[in-house]
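lol forgot to send this yesterday, sorry. struct tokens for the thing we talked abt
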């Protein structure tokens, strides 16, 4: 209904959420400053079908590193 097609599995989505190994005592801290490792979500075009789901999380510590399986999503509140 939103005109969005084939958005799952293109690239792992880099998020502002800082990486934690589990969410048992999690407190949100999405401050973008600093060099803390971030969570990646979803799957990428070269991954097994098991990983191409929004519940999949992966650790990413190098925001300056470029790789073809990591990207980000631009969101606009106007839509």
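and heres what i got for the seq, position by position
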């Amino acid at each position: 209904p939103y005109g969005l097609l084939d958005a799952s599995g293109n690239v792992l989505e880099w998020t502002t959420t800082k990486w934690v190994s589990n969410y048992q005592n999690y407190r949100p801290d999405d401050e973008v400053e600093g060099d803390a490792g971030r969570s990646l979500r979803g799957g990428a075009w070269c991954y097994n079908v098991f990983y191409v789901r929004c519940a999949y999380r992966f650790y990413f510590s190098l925001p300056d590193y470029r790789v073809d399986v990591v990207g980000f999503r631009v969101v606009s509140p106007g839509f």
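The two ends are 12 Å apart (CA to CA). anyway ping me if u want another try
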